Amino acid sequence: YQRRVRGNLTIMSNALNILLRLNYVPQSSQSVLKRNLRGRLGEVSSEAKHQNVPVEVGQSEVYDVQQYKRYDPQGWYQRMQDIHHRNVSIKMRLSDLRVLNHEGTAAYGNMQTERRLRVVAGDKVGMDNVMLDSDRFEDRADNQNYGNMKMQEVLAEARKATLGPEFWPTVEVKVRNPSGQTRAMQSLIDYGRIESTSADLYKKYRELKSKTMFVSPTQLYIHGNNSGDEVKAEAEGSSQEARKRDAQRGFLDNEFSS
């Protein structure tokens, strides 16, 4: 029984050791494992000033088997296929930004680094991945080197977020200014007038409710009728005032011009 328990504990300790090594392995060792197991891009550096971030390379090749049966002395079809397949996709996982350095003490980036990376890369970020497509040159090797360089530039620009809050991306939020009625309702200065008005309206409502079954809002706090006579009268008065001012301004202009 003791031997069985000791064997189970050994299995559990080994499983826990494997779990910890898979999750907390430093970036240099992690890059070596991923390069050997999954065909990653670039060399692995163990220097203190370098940081390894695993990046995957993808490419697509589609050949017509029947075309290879034909006589092709100058390789025109092969060259055409090479140019057609020149595109190289370089992909990086955002979770790989949290890999530890060579000492295993600090990660490459934090949350602000990821946010800055999303701003810098733009629409190249999706599904927690950063993918850059490189088809600038005719040779695939040149596109791979160019894409690797661009990925390094993007990561270096994103890592500026570790320098301080001035490099963190900010969001500008526009808030509408509250109207005068809202400010009055929310202020303590106008509290007494609002309470007294509410009490008077409720008293008026109780009196009207004792006489009729339904009390319309126009009988309490909505002033004016449905025909809009008051609005028309106010507009007409404003028009008359405007015409009067225009006439006075024209009279003064004629006096000064003469």
User: In which order are the strands of the major sheet placed?
Assistant: 1-2-4-3
Number of helices: 8
- Roughly what fraction of the amino acids lie in strands? 5-15%
Outline the low-pLDDT stretches: none
H/E series: HHEHEHEEHHHH
Class from secondary-structure proportions = alpha+beta
User: What is the subunit arrangement here?
Assistant: single chain
The average pLDDT is 78
Radius of gyration of CA atoms, rounded to a whole number: 38 Å
State the helicity in percent bands: 40-55%
Major sheet: 4 strands, antiparallel
Euclidean distance between termini CA atoms: 123 Å
Shape category: elongated
Instruction: Compute the number of strand runs.
Output: 4
Question: Key terms for this structure?
Answer:
single chain, 258 residues, alpha+beta, 7% strand
Draw up the topology in text.
Blueprint: H1 2-24, H2 27-38, E1 56-58, H3 76-84, E2 88-93, H4 111-121, E3 125-126, E4 129-134, H5 140-158, H6 180-186, H7 191-209, H8 229-257
Antiparallel strand pairs: 1-2, 2-4, 3-4
Q: How would you describe what is shown here?
A:
The protein starts with a helix and ends with a helix. It has a four-stranded antiparallel β-sheet with strand order 1-2-4-3. It contains eight helices and four strands, in the order ααβαβαββαααα. It is elongated and about 95 Å long. By secondary structure, the chain is an alpha+beta fold. A hairpin with a 2-residue loop joins strand 3 and strand 4.
